[in-house]
Amino acid sequence: MSIDPMRASDVERERIVAELRQAATEGRLDVDELDERTASAYTSKTRGELLQLIEDIPTARVAPPSPSPQRRLPTTPGRTGFTARWLAPARRRQAATELAEFVAPPMRAHGYALEHASDAHMVFARKHRPVWTYVLAVALFPLGLLALLHTEREEIVCDLHEHEDGTLISVSGKAPLAIRRALSELER
């Protein structure tokens, strides 16, 4: 093994000392060896000198992190129920403002109106008349016209909860495929 003549940095010295301490906790070094090698690490001038202190200690091979499972985007057409959760890297008030700014316009385009908004809770709602009411109105005319009085309401509820790393946003409700896909994209 050729000795690396490059000058060692304090960060490199600390990393070697940490490896020596780990080796001692695993029983690979006794207390005297740990003290001796730690002192040598702090007085080492080159990287080569540092590497010699740990060359007889097997390094822990950390397995690479397993790739996070890719969440499948919704593919079912029509208006169906869904849930989505993601962590926004902002405080709750800012996350609520951004949610209203970026999510509300596409919701309006699909017929949803913002009914309630606060820093912790948002409700988008849509009222619509199902197709079956028109079929009944035509098939059973004139009495079938009463079916046109029926409307259905769909809601999308957004809850925002403070989290140490930002704001946890949970969205659930019934929505068309385009909205479900867009909100599911935010989970990644």
TrEMBL record:
Q: What residue ranges are annotated as transmembrane?
A: 131-149
**Does Transmembrane helix show up as a keyword for this record?**
yes
- Residue ranges constituting the DUF1707 domain according to the UniProt record: 6-58
> What keywords were assigned to this record?
Membrane, Transmembrane, Transmembrane helix
Q: Name one Pfam family in it.
A: DUF1707
Taxonomic superkingdom? Bacteria
Region annotated Disordered sits at 60-80
Which InterPro entries does the annotation name? DUF1707_SHOCT-like
PANTHER family, A to Z: DUF1707 DOMAIN-CONTAINING PROTEIN, MEMBRANE PROTEIN-RELATED
The protein's name in its UniProt record: DUF1707 domain-containing protein
Protein's organism: Solirubrobacter deserti
